[in-house]
């Protein structure tokens, strides 16, 4: 909204100032991660001419860096769910997601996602994405085997079973090791190529182009150190990721998370898509929220332990998802100077071999008193907490925090405590969950809640299904990006122009 | 950013579409609360022709509804602080405010505010705002006597004394009862009138007017059911309050607070100033944060009690500010189904006579066990918490939460507990703390961080000094609105045009 001539996301270029269109296409897509790939496939399948611009020299985005678990279910269940003996109901899936995100949820997106999730599974398998008809029954962050189905969120953890019947919905690709992301992007990239999409690598989108009616009619891209003007007759789809790599934006919009966390994503997650959208009047929502995790498992045996704060109090059921624990330690326990995980030798188990948590041993003790002293907890506090926990655990009960009986057993001497305090060793990864305000169709809204003609977005450039780490489940972000990427591609391709 | 013809904040009017200017002025100010009044006074004093538009039929805004405590200090201290024996240091005040808001703070605004707070005090007294040279030494939310100086925040409460020397900075006007707001606005309104400002009541600002360079050159106002075009040669200052009365905006931008709280403010706090700013590309920040309070004192004797959650755990030092307690109960204790205040007969004191909390008695007991049963707490939990608290309180200690010795004494049978759970009776007021991104000068920034020519804002239309309820102190919002209102008026009046 400024007359400066420089090319920046906040200064859309006016089509009346453009003498020459370097590229003339139907749909221009910015970003070749999971969202952009799916948008390109659908737009091409709908008959549109598609040009896809990617900053890096290869496709992938943050999807390729992830495990590419995909959260799917509903409508009776995917073939994998059914093969593993689960019947999944759309309303049950919807109830679960509502419980995850409360009044932060986008009801229209949740409903679209749940109603069409089975179709999305079939679309992915139709492209050749392989899922084995098997379940990984361990508590894990991702499947390191080639097994598919996994509980990837809080489905079985209090209080979620009160809201919805627990069903596993995390679908891991059929490949050994943590290699789902590269495989998914390889398949999607081939599908894009098969459709004759014009892919431009090492091409940085700079700003949108608008006409006199404020409609988005193209995008300025820098290729080989030159700015080129791309005319997009049906629209531009922003799939440029989130903003966790943009320190200034994190500080400005998500200051709670500007505290020494480790951003996870690709270097292009600088919020450029969000900034370009804002530059043409788009609203942003949920900008203050991020995914954050305290990945205290594997080994899953640490789930038998208890998390305590600097008062020696427990504060959460330790069988919930690592993101929920990360959120809780970072936000709800923000006034606690220490976070410890207290366990015993059996619980500690293969920690040193299997974990990527990075937490150091903060103390050990043959007695509770000894450990309490080493951890500098208020006198008697750990004794009260641990004795009470053990007494109930022996009976398979956790009346205060409702950890499920599966993970309850008394913690026996000798004791060991890991220092899970942020800044004292442990890995606290984060990425952003806020972005452009958009409809399920991918249409981007202005601050008055109206559609901006010609502008679409998907993936972490938007605020999508996942709204908080507290309710997050692995697979929600790749699921959201791929599903709503498809819808954005469909919508843009069929726009009258 | 849309070609629709309707007049809404999201659709700025183009000056090229305007045939006739109904009013031609230097500075147009929207909103006649504390911020707008101070902006008008300064702009007029700088020689500008000023037109002030107010939705209501009288001045006042939310400032007139408040107690109009004003948070001031630094530079050795105000005359009142000095008369009461306090010497206040600018850096100490700055350290305190930094501790209050952490990395959510706007450092430039904090510095400007602290460095010029003494000057602001003198400016106010120069206008005739009366402050008595006296201190109210009670723990209170506002002075109901005509006394002036009061600790209105967390200055004396842990952990703030670790960051800054505690100094009272809440300045109450010299008037009996909770009547500071009306008196302040009466004085400011007279000062506006004395300066020949053209005041237009019952005048609703609809949208901004921009020229071809995207500069703000005026505002469309509805008066007597007609739209009039106001040309503002030096600029428009938005002082239209926050958005706590706009349910849709609260749900969209501050969903955490969309949970049955009671909005406090005037009916015009619908976010219209924020929406108009957004309509011309302004950035918004801190939109997810609100002031929220659990006003559990008066009577101050309840501070001798302890706040506990549904696990029977304490979670905060009960001598802190009511807003910090409100924030903590609402956010950090969000997973607790109950919040109780446990006290004894002496602590309960004049609760029924003095309080406006509205909390009901949840249980009583001649023994801890009896109360624990009535409150349905985990067996032994209250016994552990209260016994531990009492043992330390008898020694003037609170090793876990650091409540100051002043408020420590053992809680003696018979016991009583108030149900402070949101939704079960108690008053949880809230108002918004997010708004347009602006410089201390009042200049509004676009999403690229650049100044939008011709646009200014102050008060709760902006994100100002107070950024969270957790660090709030009474007097910060009126202090911020009046001080930065003045700066916006000065800046706009001297703009070259």
From TrEMBL, chains A, B:
GO BP terms in the entry: steroid metabolic process
Keywords in alphabetical order: FAD, Flavoprotein, Oxidoreductase
InterPro entries: FAD-dep_OxRdtase_2_FAD-bd (IPR003953), FAD-oxidoreductase_2 (IPR050315), FAD/NAD-bd_sf (IPR036188), Succ_DH/fumarate_Rdtase_cat_sf (IPR027477)
Cross-referenced Gene3D superfamilies: FAD/NAD(P)-binding domain, Succinate dehydrogenase/fumarate reductase flavoprotein, catalytic domain
Cleaved signal peptide residues: none
PANTHER family assigned to the protein according to its UniProt record, in alphabetical order: 3-OXOSTEROID 1-DEHYDROGENASE, FUMARATE REDUCTASE
Presence of the UniProt keyword Iron-sulfur in the record: no
SUPFAM superfamilies documented for this protein: FAD/NAD(P)-binding domain, Succinate dehydrogenase/fumarate reductase flavoprotein, catalytic domain
Cofactors (names): FAD
A Pfam match: FAD_binding_2
Protein's UniProt name: FAD-dependent oxidoreductase
Positions of the FAD-dependent oxidoreductase 2 FAD-binding domain: 26-464
Protein's organism: Spongiibacter nanhainus
Keyword Oxidoreductase belongs to the record: yes
GO molecular function, one term: oxidoreductase activity
């Amino acid at each position: 909204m400024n007359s400066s001539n420089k090319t920046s996301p906040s200064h859309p270029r006016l089509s009346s100032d453009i003498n020459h269109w370097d590229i003339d296409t139907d749909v221009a897509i910015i970003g070749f991660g999971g969202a952009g790939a799916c948008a390109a496939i659908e737009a091409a399948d709908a008959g549109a001419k598609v040009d896809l611009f990617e900053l890096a020299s290869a496709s992938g985005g943050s999807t390729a860096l992830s495990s590419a678990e995909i959260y799917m279910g509903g409508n009776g269940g995917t073939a994998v769910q059914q093969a593993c003996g689960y019947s999944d109901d759309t309303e049950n899936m919807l109830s679960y997601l509502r419980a995850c995100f409360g009044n932060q949820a986008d009801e229209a997106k949740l409903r679209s996602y749940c109603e069409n999730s089975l179709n999305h599974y079939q679309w992915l398998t139709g492209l050749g994405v392989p899922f084995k008809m098997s379940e990984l029954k361990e508590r894990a962050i991702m499947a390191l085997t080639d097994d598919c189905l996994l509980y990837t969120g809080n489905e079985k953890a209090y209080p979620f079973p009160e809201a919805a019947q627990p069903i596993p919905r995390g679908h891991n690709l059929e490949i050994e090791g943590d290699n789902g992301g590269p495989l998914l992007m390889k398949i999607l990239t081939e599908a894009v190529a098969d459709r004759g999409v014009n892919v431009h690598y090492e091409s940085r989108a700079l700003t949108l182009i608008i006409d006199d009616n404020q409609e988005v009619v193209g995008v300025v891209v820098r290729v080989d150190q030159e700015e080129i003007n791309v005319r997009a007759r049906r629209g531009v789809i922003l799939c440029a990721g989130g903003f966790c790599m943009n320190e200034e934006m994190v500080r400005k919009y998500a200051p709670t998370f500007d505290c020494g966390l480790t951003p996870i994503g690709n270097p292009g997650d600088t919020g450029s898509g969000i900034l370009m959208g804002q530059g043409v009047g788009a609203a942003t929502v949920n900008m203050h929220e991020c995914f954050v995790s305290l990945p205290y498992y594997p080994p899953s045996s640490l789930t038998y332990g208890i998390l305590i704060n600097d008062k020696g109090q427990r504060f959460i059921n330790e069988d919930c998802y690592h993101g929920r624990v990360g959120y809780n330690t970072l936000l709800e326990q923000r006034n606690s100077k220490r976070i410890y995980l207290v366990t015993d030798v059996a619980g500690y188990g293969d920690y040193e071999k299997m974990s990527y948590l990075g937490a150091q041993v903060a103390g050990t003790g043959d007695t509770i008193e000894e450990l309490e002293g080493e951890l500098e907890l208020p006198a008697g506090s750990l004794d009260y907490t641990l004795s009470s926990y053990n007494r109930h655990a022996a009976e398979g009960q956790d009346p205060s925090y409702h950890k499920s009986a599966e993970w309850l057993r008394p913690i026996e001497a000798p004791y060991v405590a890991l220092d899970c305090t942020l800044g004292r060793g442990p890995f606290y990864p984060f990425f952003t969950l806020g972005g452009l305000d958009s409809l399920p169709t991918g249409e981007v809204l202005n601050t008055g809640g109206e559609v901006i003609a010609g502008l679409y977005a998907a993936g972490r450039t938007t605020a999508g299904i996942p709204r908080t780490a507290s309710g997050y489940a692995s697979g929600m972000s790749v699921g959201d990006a791929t599903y709503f990427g498809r819808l954005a591609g469909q919508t843009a391709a069929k726009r009258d122009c």
